[in-house]
Amino acid sequence: MTVDTAIDLNELDLADPDIYTAPDSGLGVLHHLQEHQPMFWNKRSGGPSFWAFTKYADGVAVYLDKTNFTSERGMQVGQTESAARAAAGKMLIVTDGRHSQLRDVMNPALTPRVVRRLESAMRETVGGMLEENAAKDSFDFVDTVAGRLPLSVICELLGVPRADWDLMIQWTRTAFGSATSDDIISDAEKAEANANIFAYYADLLAERRRDLGDDVISVLIRGKIDGTPLTDEEILLNINGLITGGNETTRHASAGAVIALVENPDEWTRLRRDPSLIPTAVEEVLRWTAPSLNVMRTAIRDTKIGDQAIRAGERVSVWHPVVNRDEDAFPDARRFDVGRTPNRHLTFGLGKHLCIGAALARFELRVLLEELTARVSRMELTGPVKRLRSNLMWGVDRVPVHLELDHAGH
């Protein structure tokens, strides 16, 4: 890959969402930093400046340093500090002190047993959508398959009635800026969608308080920290976190998996011929797609990452798409390899903030790859992929595809 040496680092702002709508999805810029300035001080006029780390080892160091950094002042560079402070100590991803206790409350809702219970519904969703759309000359894989799988799973987990599922995906895509790159979503529209989500789940929470079930909301209602039940605010904030992680990230990973397999036909053939590679293929999809664009921490005291001094109050960020492509950590890192092992990507984070939904996301991707390889003989893109305009999520808006079913196998 040729690195663009014309990049003006004095003008560069990695928080600019337009960077990630480029044909290379911003990787040229990120690789340039990795090769020339892997510890980059990103000066901003319209928001707080931050350090951007693009080397794997530095990302690991940030994740594992529980002493010098906090997540309670924001956990991504695209977030506002006021929003982070409002949720700090209450929402899992922006909580440090009570993190383990809050995680213990939520874990029973996401056990392997609970996840396996949803397997038949997952297969029915994926298989049904593949069979229904394969006859079409072209369809959008994002809305039709990649979006439906995680949405159905998270709605099942939260006990959302099926009639409301389409409403949920519409609100979440707007709230997190995941609309098409042609349609820039205003702050007012995002705020309205977030308000709608909170209002909906506040009503659902009130229903569950009157009549408990076995869904995630009921688990959170029953949960206690130091003998004290969670407040409605704490429950609603963590529901919002599950929606983001359970819907948005898996959707982009699923769509990215199809792009990667279409663009690497030898790997697609390899995977179809040897389904035993699916577990390693899932990890490679996660490394390659890295849906959470960046993670941020704030230094609470003067410290260092490698040789770089970090002052108290400064923000540091780790950029997942490029740390997952660091040649020092992943041999032949810019090649998609369904058999890659070991594969210690940072897509789910590391340490105590390891994504609580990691097992669920892996299971969904496994089901997707199993259904694709078993049912589909050929995949092709039928038009340009549209990248997501976001500085939070690294993904795609639209993936037009044509699929041919493997009738011999079914």
TrEMBL record:
<keyword id="KW-0479">Metal-binding</keyword>
<dbReference type="InterPro" id="IPR001128">
    <property type="entry name" value="Cyt_P450"/>
</dbReference>
<protein>
    <submittedName>
        <fullName>Cytochrome P450</fullName>
    </submittedName>
</protein>
<keyword id="KW-0408">Iron</keyword>
<dbReference type="Pfam" id="PF00067">
    <property type="entry name" value="p450"/>
</dbReference>
<comment type="similarity">
    <text>Belongs to the cytochrome P450 family.</text>
</comment>
<dbReference type="InterPro" id="IPR017972">
    <property type="entry name" value="Cyt_P450_CS"/>
</dbReference>
<keyword id="KW-0560">Oxidoreductase</keyword>
<keyword id="KW-0349">Heme</keyword>
<dbReference type="InterPro" id="IPR036396">
    <property type="entry name" value="Cyt_P450_sf"/>
</dbReference>
<keyword id="KW-0503">Monooxygenase</keyword>
<dbReference type="InterPro" id="IPR002397">
    <property type="entry name" value="Cyt_P450_B"/>
</dbReference>
